[in-house]
Amino acid sequence: MTSTDLEAALADAEDAFQRKPEQPEVGLEYVTDPAVLQLRKACRLLDAASFLLARNGHYTVIIESSFVAIERSIQFYVEEKGYDVAGQRHTEVYDLGVRAGLFSRGVADRLEALWIENRSESYYRTGVAGEYRARTLHDLAVQLHDETVQLTRTQDCLCE
After folding, report:
1. Which of 101, 129, 147, 153 is the most buried (most CB within 10 A)?
2. How far apart are the first and last CA of the chain?
3. Model's pTM, two decimal places?
4. Is residue 76 pLDDT above 60, yes or no?
5. DSSP, res 55
């Protein structure tokens, strides 16, 4: 690809990420605690997925958002417990959840298998997202998020 328009759009995107946001996302704008930032990102992802579910569509986006919300919720919990999550890959967060006492090895293995077998299938390969898959994964993400909030007794959750 050598399109001038593509290169200009790429340059604009690169520049955008070098600047401080002029209109930061509400709820994230003043957060300095990295754990709380992960928690609130999970809140926003779950909210967006709920919005799309209510409109009966975009199931691929709902599935992706739900998987990422699960990761962010786990990251919040393990960071609250003092574990370093910098540079971890997607599936490593489940091991951290076990070490931090959030869930058992069996649950971690099932979460990891769910991610490996289904997230990439729905997102990258031939799998087609559907309402039931999106709804049940979203329900799982909400349940895990709610439990991490309850376990930590945080007041920083933005979910309603």
Report:
1. 129
2. 45
3. 0.88
4. yes
5. T
